[in-house]
Specification:
There is one protein chain. The longest helix has 17 residues. The chain contains seven helices and seven strands; from the N terminus they run βαβααβαβββααβα. It has one domain: Rossmann fold. The protein is of the alpha/beta class. It is globular, with a radius of gyration of 17 Å. A hairpin with an 8-residue loop joins strand 4 and strand 5.
Length: 195
């Protein structure tokens, strides 16, 4: 059954040579080829002011770009989030994106009674794709995939996004042409399955 998919290209550098962009393109090709509907959010193209106060987060007025992104995220049944690992975490621009779109009233609402906040985006799934310079196994084993788990638990799960599947692509700068093509084929297959 066709799904509505949003691809969030979280690389802050719009240079088309970045492998994250090629991975996003491959996922989109697979998804469209299988009859899914796809919209793209390119974080590098957005005007994203930084949130500086709790008051702005809770009751400030999101920019037009942020409101458009929220509409796209609400429309989608499956989110695909791609980004490079920078200084052990997602780039600051992608974090600013999630802070802006993940506001009260859109991503979550106050609890009824004494419970946890209500998850307003429940019923959606996600795939997270992270590229990095270190070996992927080292990132998972030594660092326990800390930043990836933080995105899954502290942002996506808080909004109600589940299940979340992850792909870690290590030693990205050292990948051969054949290894890159293997990853692109894998992304097209994920897109075809909307997984």
């Amino acid at each position: 059954m066709p799904k509505r998919i949003v691809i969030i290209d979280g690389h802050p550098d719009a240079d088309p040579k970045r492998f994250v962009h090629a991975l996003a393109d491959a996922y989109e090709q697979g998804a469209l080829g299988a009859g899914h509907e796809v919209q793209r959010i390119r974080v590098a193209a957005l005007e994203l002011p930084l949130l500086r106060t709790a008051q702005d987060f809770q009751s400030g007025t999101p920019s037009r770009d942020v409101r458009t992104c929220q509409q796209t995220l609400a429309w989608a049944q499956h989110w695909v989030i791609l980004y490079p690992l920078w200084l052990g975490s997602m780039p600051a621009l992608l974090k600013a994106f999630f802070e802006q779109v993940g506001r009260p009233g859109f991503a979550f609402a106050a609890a009824r009674g004494r419970g946890l906040p209500r998850k307003l985006l429940a019923g959606r799934s996600a795939r997270v794709v992270v590229t990095m310079g270190m070996p992927g196994l080292f990132y998972r084993w030594y660092y326990r995939a800390h930043s990836l788990r933080s995105l899954e638990r502290n942002i996506l799960a808080f909004m109600g996004i589940a299940p979340v599947r992850a792909s870690v692509i290590g030693m990205v700068e050292a990948l051969s042409g054949a290894q890159r093509e293997q990853w692109l084929r894998r992304m097209r297959a994920y897109g075809k399955r909307a997984s």
